[in-house]
Amino acid sequence: MSGAFKKWAVTVALMAGFSCGQAALAQSDAYPSREVKIICAFPAGSGADIWVRFFAEQARPLLKQPVLVENRVGASGLMATTAAAKAKADGYTLFMHSPTSLAANYFMFKDRPVDPSKEMVTIASLFKFTFYLTVAANKPWKDVKELIADLRIKGDKASFATTAPPGQLMGALFKDILQLKALEVTYRTGPDTVNDYLSGAIDYGFHDGVFALAQQRAGNLRVLGIGSKERLSSHPEIPTLNEMGVTGLDVPGFFGVLAPNGTPQPVVEKLNAVFREVVATPAAQEFIIRSGGEPLGLSSTDAQKRFLDSFDEWGRLIKLAKIEPKG
Hints:
- The chain contains 12 helices and 11 strands.
- By secondary structure, it is α/β, with parallel strands linked by helices.
- It has 2 domains: 165 residues, 3-Layer(aba) Sandwich (D-Maltodextrin-Binding Protein, domain 2); 95 residues, D-Maltodextrin-Binding Protein, domain 2.
- Helix 1 packs parallel to helix 10, helix 2 packs across helix 10 and helix 4 runs parallel beside helix 12.
C-alpha cells in the first residue's frame, strides 16, 4: 500500500469519525423533538405507579416536550419489560422501574422473553428503597418478636400478603430464616389487601413505602420493620428486621430509568442530567422521603453498574430463599 493511499485512508477514517461524532451531538441537541413515552409496569393508582407519574411530571418541563405514561400491566411486569426492551433505541420510549425487580423477575420465572441485563441499560437512578413488614393496626403486635411468637402458634394457618417481586423475595426469606409455615397470598395491588388485613384474613405482609407508610398514616396498618440491613435515614425510627432477630434478611432495591440497549450515549447523558436535576429538587426530595426512600442521583455509568451488580445479587438471594422459578 502506498504512503499516499495510507494517508488518504487515515484522513477518510478521521473524517468519518468526526462526522459520526457531529451527528451524535446534533442528535443530542435536537433531542427530544417530540413526546417521550414512559412505560409503567404497575396498575394505575398503585404505589409504584405513583412514583412513575411523579417523576414523569417533574421531567416534563425540563424535557420541554409532553411526557406520557403508558401502563402495561401483566405477567408480573414481563409484558412491560418486553415492550420497553424491544422499543426503538432512540430515547423516545423509556421504562421507569426498579432494576432490582427486573432481576427478580428474570430469576423467578422460567419464561424469559428478554434478558434485561443485556437488552436494557439503566440511564438514571432516582432513589433507594426497601420493602416494609406491615400488620393491621387493629392487631396487638407492636414489634416483630410479638408477631413471630403468634405466627409460630398459628403454624400453617398463618398467611401473608405480597404484591411485587421484592415483597415475594422478602416474604420467602422471612419464612425460611425463621422456619415459619405461613401461606403467601399474592394480590394485584396494595389497596386490594386492606380489607383482608382489617378482617384478619391475612396476618402480615410486605409492601413498598408509598403504600405502607400511607396506610400507617391512615390508621389502617402498622409498620414493624424494613428489609434492609441498615435503617433508612429518611425514617430512622423504623427498625430493620435484622435488629429484630431476622438475621441475614437484606433485600435492597433502587428505582431508576431504563432504555433499550443501543440508545445513543449523548441522549443517555441528556436524560441522566434531566433526572439528576429532578432528584435534586426540594419537591422530589420531600416526595422520596415521604415514600420511604432515599434520594439516589447517580451518573449513567454508576447507575448501570449498580443495575448489573444488583442483577447478580438478586440471583443469589432468590437461590438463598429457595424460590423455584414459576411458569
